[in-house]
Amino acid sequence: MADSAVRIGLVLPDVLGTYGDSGNAVVLRQRMRWRGMPADVVEVHYGDPVPDSLDVYLLGGGEDEGQELAADYLREHAGLRRAAARGAVVFGVCAGLQVLGTSFRTGDGRRHDGLGLLDVVTGPGKRRAVGEIVVETPAGPLTGFENHLGVTTVGPGSRPLGRVRTGTGNGDGTDGAVTGHVLATYLHGPALARNPALADLLIGWVTGSPPADLPLPEVDELRRERLRAARGGARW
Ligand SMILES: NC(=O)CC[C@H](N)C(=O)O
Questions:
Q1: ipTM field
Q2: Where would I find the CobB/CobQ-like glutamine amidotransferase domain in this sequence (predicted)?
């Protein structure tokens, strides 16, 4: 990888910023800097051009209205889609997951086209999924909190990120979706703060090899605490 800084795109934090997922950009940047890799966050606001030259694109959660705006904007300003086509890393959370899919229906029943970077379709569920969620994945158990109405079906062009142990996720026992270097989940937290292994998976995709271990006792403790809290009352 070149010496130039890794550029992390925080995509539309003004319309997809309701659930604190912008913190994922801070975590990615810091975990790279701690390892001596220069990294910068580039915020792409609604109304800005969407560059196709960034290394990572992060999309967070938001209300239906914001999600609708984001999907329309990112279909019209195709920088993110062009970047994904050349293999850039994309990470979406909740509304971000739904926007990255082929289509979604909002709570009012209206259908919207997504970006088609993941083979997922979302529609409104019967009740809102709210609370702690734990997902078993190849990167270990992930914890987060969820707050969404959407129920997501993963088609053959993607695979689920993992299996739900506590909580709802996609609504069928799985959570999230992955295709190539596009990965999305229902986990807020921010997910990359609670789950350093997931942050490092994305960093490895960006740099082309898994990053060196980063021993951080306070991060490990936060992780243990969240796992304990999520397991409270659960039979596993
Ligand atoms: N937390 C979110 O991003 C919510 C996404 C979407 N508006 C839903 O309710 O399903």
A1: 0.96
A2: 7-195
Burial class of residue 3, CB neighbours in 10 A (0-12, 13-18, 19+): exposed
Residues flagged as binding site for substrate: 128
Q: Is the CB of 19 under 6 A from ligand 1?
A: yes
Residue 61 beta carbon below 6 angstroms from any ligand 1 atom: yes
Q: Domain spans of the chain?
A: 6-231
Fold (CATH) for 6-231 = Rossmann fold (3.40.50)
Residue % of the chain over a pLDDT of 90: 90
Task: Please give the backbone phi and psi of residue 195, each rounded to the nearest 5 degrees, phi first.
Answer: -130, 80
Average pLDDT (107-135) is 97
Q: Which atom of ligand 1 is nearest to the CA of 19?
A: 1
Residue pLDDT, tens place only, 57-77: 999 999 999 999 999 999 999
Element (H, E) at 111: strand 111-113
Instruction: Determine the atom of ligand 1 nearest the C-alpha atom of 16.
Output: 3
Q: What is the pLDDT of residues 128-184, one digit of tens each?
A: 999 999 999 999 999 999 999 999 999 999 999 999 999 999 999 999 999 999 999
Q: What are phi and psi of 202, to 5 degrees?
A: -65, -40
Which residue numbers belong to the known binding site? Answer: 128
